[in-house]
Specification:
By secondary structure, this protein is an alpha/beta fold. The chain has 11 helices and 12 strands. It has helices at about 10-15, 55-70, 95-110, 145-155, 170-180, 200-205, 225-240, 255-260, 275-285, 290-305, 315-320, and strands at about 30-35, 40-45, 50-55, 70-80, 115, 130-135, 135-140, 160, 185-195, 245, 265-270, 310. The strands form 2 sheets. Strands 1, 2, 3, 4, 5, 8, 9, 10, 11 and 12 form a 10-stranded mixed sheet that branches. The protein has a two-stranded antiparallel ribbon with strand order 6-7. Helix 4 (about 145-155) crosses helix 5 (about 170-180). The protein starts with 11 loop residues before the first helix and ends in a 6-residue tail after the last helix. The chain binds ligand PBG. Ligand PBG binds near residues 119, 203, 204 and 273. Ligand PBG binds near residues 117 and 273.
Length: about 325
């Protein structure tokens, strides 16, 4: 036998030398759920290890993450039902606790990267990402609401806007609003290929944001489609997006690869709540070993072509690295 691939695997040192994919904490974005009030740390039952935090307890948590090497966070608000309405006006209200929290966090940690969520669902009495009339999710009527939300977040000090709503034309609309208000350096991480997936369940539990009627299939993509993701990617690029995102990640590794091969923008992948919950549940049952299955999972998303991964495992990954359980 002249050729023996196993020769390149004989020692740890050689394996490290030929390693193709490296995932650094700098590539990770940690999603955090925020709730109004004080002294609150309430666990999301369907996403063990993740909490709805009040700002006072979130600040030390962020500090812990920073100390571990996590520098980027995406924030989602868990809004009281009494503040929700059909036009999501609380999303850009002066008194909005989410906007206040953004300002406080950025003031305390000017060097971290904070990413927002732009969509109506956390604030909508209908639980949809867009404005609902007669059971229809209206596209063009939603855009001004998203624009106001994005500008309010920029005013609060957000670094990157994350439109997750899947309305047509929203990247251009938001870009123009931001520029007009003087926020030229605020980036847009567009949820480019966001699928109408069954894997968002724990997230909707966390925010109590499930649609009251119907589903999200008229705006989120059909899981059967990949070419359509290219169409969305072309549009987002031409509308001024700075990053393209694929969501969920694991069932859509082919789409991640497709966008990576067809775009010069950084590609982000959202390893969503249901994907993390599945793995956590198997590990809690003793069916999988968390310290091995978790990093392998994240690595596979990176290998598929994601430059950036949004994952509820970000902090644990950084912790494993610090403890020497994994290497770069
Ligand atoms: C809604 C939004 C969702 C997620 C992020 N933004 C849920 C949805 O579209 O219903 C899901 C994230 C996750 O499951 O981790 N704008």
């Amino acid at each position: 036998m002249l050729v023996r691939p196993r020769r390149n695997r004989v020692s740890e040192t050689i394996r490290e030398m030929v390693k193709e994919t490296i995932l650094r904490p700098a590539n990770l974005i940690y999603p955090l759920f925020l709730v109004d009030g004080e002294n609150i740390k309430s666990e999301v039952k369907s996403l063990p290890g993740n909490y709805r935090w009040s700002l006072d307890l979130l600040l030390p948590e962020i500090q812990e993450c920073i100390d571990l090497g996590i520098q980027s966070f995406i924030l989602f608000p868990s809004v009281d039902d009494s503040l929700k309405n059909s036009t999501a006006t609380y999303s850009y209200n002066d008194k909005n606790f989410y906007l206040k929290a953004i300002s406080v966090i950025k003031e305390k940690h000017p060097n971290i990267c904070l990413i927002s969520d732009v969509a109506m669902d956390p604030y909508s009495s209908d639980g949809h990402d867009g404005f609902v009339r007669d059971a229809e999710i209206l596209n063009d009527e939603t855009l001004p609401i998203l624009g106001k939300m994005a500008v309010a977040q920029a005013e609060a000090g957000i670094d990157i806007i994350g439109p997750s709503d899947m309305m047509d034309g929203r990247v251009e609309y938001i870009r123009k609003e931001l520029d007009e208000e003087g926020f030229k350096n605020v980036g847009i991480m567009s949820y480019t290929a966001k699928y109408a997936s069954a894997f968002y369940g724990p997230f909707r539990d966390a925010l109590d944001s499930a649609p009251k009627e119907g589903d999200k299939k008229t705006y989120q993509m059909d899981p059967a489609n990949a070419i359509e993701a290219l169409r969305e990617a072309e549009l987002d690029e031409s509308e001024g997006a700075d990053y393209l995102m694929v969501k969920p990640a694991l069932n859509y590794l082919d789409v991640i690869q497709l966008l990576k091969q067809n775009s010069n923008l950084p590609i982000a992948a959202y390893h969503v709540s249901g994907e993390c919950a599945m793995l956590t549940a198997a590990c809690q049952n003793g069916w999988l070993e968390y310290e091995k299955a978790m990093p392998e999972t994240l690595l596979s998303i990176k290998r598929a072509g994601a430059d950036i991964i949004l994952t509820y495992f970000a902090k644990d990954y950084a912790q494993l690295l610090k403890n020497g359980k994994i290497t770069l």
